[in-house]
């Protein structure tokens, strides 16, 4: 099996070549996609399997605060919760990461104090992406210099929707290069498409391939700042894309649905999608994440319910 992008070398040599490739991808059967996503969402998981799924979902969360009112105290509190989600049960897994704005990266890094939880930072003029390229790259470099382990960038949806595919590709490549530290190590790059603004499933498939060809480590549905964010159908489509990309290149790329995933039932539906579409190789926080804030609380309450047989009181979990 090849493990490089050699087979796609000619695809990105020009805007017209990239357009031909993207528009040559198989069209998405919207009815079939939504029907399969709905069907997989009916799978029932009980007892031991449910307990495993809850712990797995906790370990996959990028615990997120992306508000204008964020303070150092709120970020430190979030970091403490990420490391020790349930102070009454030390067997509870840590979350995968804490996700913050670039100016809060250093605060989050210090608060985590060497814990295994990653620091993720949004960048590139999140959430709209309406800034000049030098500003986007400076935004990225600042976050990496402050200690970010992962960068969540946004594409220019205006450029993409106008058909400027090579411009979108070059932006992702440039941000990928900005993720490299002076010592040669690099922050992992998650590329956000804002699927709710891409209008069609065909566009989501095309954006997925642009991101993967440009070197994304993860492809991500959304910012959580628009009306339509992660859905089972758009996540299923992206899981199919990373599965097919690995089959053709040998390169594995992660998927991160974000926005609107609030309950344990929702999270388990997405885990079923992962298992049935991409396979077990993606059932780890190395390759699948949830972008969420409130989801963790519901997972913790469901976890206690399985352990004790009763639901927690309202003060059992912190309110973020």
Q: Can you describe this structure?
A:
The chain is α/β, with parallel strands linked by helices. Helix content is 45%, strand content 10%. It contains 12 helices and 8 strands. Strands 7-6-5-4-3-2-1-8 form an 8-stranded parallel beta sheet. Strand 3, helix 6 and strand 4 form a beta-alpha-beta unit. The radius of gyration is 19 Å and the shape is globular. The relative contact order is 0.15. The model has no long low-confidence stretch (mean pLDDT 95).
Essential attributes:
single chain; 320 residues; alpha/beta; eight-stranded parallel sheet; 12 helices; 8 strands; 10% strand
Task: Give the structure's gist in a few sentences.
The chain is 45% helix and 10% strand.
